[in-house]
Amino acid sequence: MLDIKFIRENKDLIALAIKNKKVKEKVDLDKMIALFDERQNLKKEIDELNHKRNEAARQRLIEEGSRLKKELAELEKKFEAVSQKFMSLMLLIPNVPSPDTPVGEDETHNKVLRQWGTPRQFDFQPKNHMGLGVSLGLINNERAALVSGTRFSYLKGDLVLMQFALINYAFSILTNKKKLEEIAQAAGLNIKVTPFVPIIPPVMIKPAVLNRMARLEPRDERYHIPTDDLYLIGSAEHSIGPMHMDETFEEADLPVRYVGYSTAFRREAGSYGKDTHGIFRVHQFDKMEMETFCLPENSFQEQEFLVAIQEYLVKSLNLPYQAVILCTGDMGLPDYRQIDIETWMPGEGKYRETHSADLVTSFQPRRLNTKVKRSDPSAGGAGDRAEPVHMNDATVFAGRTLIAILENYQCADGTVEIPEVLRSYMGKNSIGHER
């Protein structure tokens, strides 16, 4: 959610963001501002009536107090109605994109920032991940379809061990301050480095809280449990982000960084007929996610730090990739700036998205009421103030990394080599034909 003062002073910029982000429900900014002004006037009237009631009570003017009480109840009812109308419009306004975000309709207008690695040239016809998964007994979609329906999978054997190898490997990097300092230094970032705190978050979330995260919509993409009025999360950040709602950090305690591991659930309602083969786009998958809280002036570098971690991890797996900045039409409502890592998939002969890094600035924190207390030493404490923190989230590893490894590390005899950094975790160098 944006600050109403910022909206007032930048109406043209907000209108452009609504247009470029393709917000389905266009917001009447003039009406929203008028509702805010009406709300403020009603609040002033309510405060004045409360003062008069207190005076009447002090003077024991019973009839006057009774009249004021009725008048106050009517005003409070009107205030609540106006507040609801105002907030319903306010919550539709997207975050303003960063100056370097390309303007465009869809993913075809995203901009490649850099590439690393050279796609492998095979001396045999490479298989896609599903062909490898079936032949090696690692993936079974047919049985999963009988049990749960389409877009579900059984992962088996060494592919399961590889997933947990990735998780353990990532935790070893993200909890290692020295390694993180090396990554930050290599990226030319002058930031305060702290280890990430591992988290296993709840996979169910209240709709009101998911709405405060600005991730409730589109609801048709979410799994809902009506009996308990809970939603299944689509990413660990959905329930890690609200951990500090209605809290105020001390300035010295920031940044706070978490790395969460959870199962993620997505209905993929808007992707009918898209990526139906294999495990690229499924309803259930496991995912590691970084979520950080930092000072506003540091949030851009914080995103760059998270992207540097992503790139370090993908490079260490020796997977060719490209870093892409998303255009306005491909971004989410709360995102100020979004960087994707697209990894080379030999089975398709193209780069596909495996990682995202979202800088949401104060958009989510303002809705969550997550703040930081800033101090002015020269004011002797009198200058202390609270302002929204800034938040970032970014993928560590998800199921698509397994796809990239299978396809890039396949051999002519049908086996799959294991990336060197994962071998100690799996206790072997390759995945063979054994069942």
UniProtKB/TrEMBL annotation:
GO terms for molecular function: ATP binding; serine-tRNA ligase activity. One of its GO terms (biological process) is seryl-tRNA aminoacylation. ATP binds at residues 266-268, 282-285, 353-356. PROSITE patterns: AA_TRNA_LIGASE_II (PS50862). Residues 177-435 form the Aminoacyl-transfer RNA synthetases class-II family profile domain. This is Serine--tRNA ligase. The record marks 395 as: Important for serine binding. Pfam families: Seryl_tRNA_N (PF02403), tRNA-synt_2b (PF00587). L-serine binds at residues 266, 289. Keywords: Aminoacyl-tRNA synthetase, ATP-binding, Coiled coil, Ligase, Nucleotide-binding, Protein biosynthesis. Its EC number is 6.1.1.11. GO terms for cellular component: cytoplasm. It is an enzyme of class 6 (ligase). Signal peptide: none annotated. Residues 32-85 form a coiled coil. It comes from Candidatus Nomurabacteria bacterium RIFCSPLOWO2_02_FULL_42_17. NCBIfam families: serS (TIGR00414).
